[in-house]
Design a protein that fits this description.
alpha+beta, 4 strands, disordered N terminus
Length: about 200
């Protein structure tokens, strides 16, 4: 009877050891599966980074190599790259819209034309909208003013010579300052003349 109990307990113990070993193997396999999934996610991240870098490289190559050579030298663009290019373009459009709104609040607005950019510089004084002046700039090298409605006594040529080729924001800012100074003085003179007429009657 003791022999049967010992063999039974040995059989049970060996069975338990087998179960424990198989449970350990299952746990190891599950750990490997989790590591595999992590590696797959990392690979996907790296692929998307690679696609973004390819996009940037293509853009740089197309900007540095003119014409057909740029097309020959550019890397093939995958669907993911096209999507990332689209996302970058959409972000740039949103940023540009924001800048145009900001410029509009500061009295500057612009729109693209067939040959370049048309700017509108609005002037104001103490919350009163005064006048708007227009300026068409041809986008070519060098930048050139095509048409404008800037008064003759504003030193447009001098301002353009100093700033237009170097920094268009600075050019527009300096020109806007001159136009606002003129519009303010004109407004003040008009107000004085109106007050003078009222007093004289």
């Amino acid at each position: 009877m003791d022999k049967i109990a010992i063999s039974f307990s040995n059989g049970t113990l060996s069975h338990l050891e087998t179960l424990e070993a198989s449970a350990h193997n299952v746990a190891l396999k599950q750990e490997k599966i989790r590591e595999y999934e992590k590696m797959k996610m990392k690979i996907q991240e790296l692929r998307s980074q690679r696609d973004e870098l390819k996009t940037k490289l293509n853009v740089c190559q197309s900007q540095s190599t003119p014409g057909k050579d740029a097309m020959k030298n550019s890397l093939p663009v995958s669907k993911a790259t096209a999507k990332s290019q689209q996302a970058i373009l959409e972000r740039k459009i949103e940023n540009t819209k924001g800048l145009l709104e900001l410029f509009h609040l500061t009295g500057l607005s612009g729109k693209l034309t067939e040959q370049g950019v048309s700017f509108c510089i609005s002037t104001a004084f103490e919350g009163t909208y005064l006048d708007s002046y227009y300026l068409d700039i041809l986008i070519q090298q060098p930048l050139r003013i095509q048409h404008h409605s800037i008064p003759v006594f504003i030193p447009l040529e001098q301002i353009a010579h100093e700033h237009l080729q170097k920094d268009i924001k600075c050019f527009l800012s300096v020109l806007s300052d001159h136009l606002n100074a003129y519009a303010r003085r004109k407004f003040q003179v008009d107000q004085l003349q109106v007050r003078g007429k009222i007093v004289s009657f």
